[in-house]
Write a structure and sequence with these properties.
mainly alpha, 44% helix, 109 residues
Length: 109
């Protein structure tokens, strides 16, 4: 191994896993394999961003992660999204059997 390769390897940071384990059986049956992998990875890490391309099911992933987190840790979850996307979230949440509320004011939160 060259000195430069050693130098590069010394710069690699490994993020701490601060989340929780998710079993495949915990996920909704309609979850696709790539969504399953992303959900399990994000839940285990605890603080991870998902930059999936258009059409890969980010809404499904976010709703499932929110459901799993609130089931595991309790409390409520908050999803902030553009106004034009709220109907997509409502439709997908209904399909998954997840209750969500659209809040217009802080009092509704």
């Amino acid at each position: 191994m060259t000195d430069y390769q050693k130098f590069l390897e010394s710069k690699v940071l490994e993020s701490k896993k601060e989340g929780f384990q998710v079993r495949e059986s915990d996920l909704h049956p309609s979850t696709f394999p790539h969504q399953r992998d992303i959900i399990m990875w994000a839940a285990e890490g605890g603080k991870r961003a998902i930059f999936a391309a258009f059409g890969l099911g980010k809404t499904h992933i976010q709703l499932e992660l929110g459901r799993l987190c609130t089931e595991k840790k309790g409390g409520k979850g908050l999803i902030c999204c553009p106004l034009g996307v709220k109907q997509e979230f409502k439709k997908e949440a209904d399909r998954l059997g997840i209750a969500i509320n659209y809040c217009r004011t802080m009092q509704e939160v």
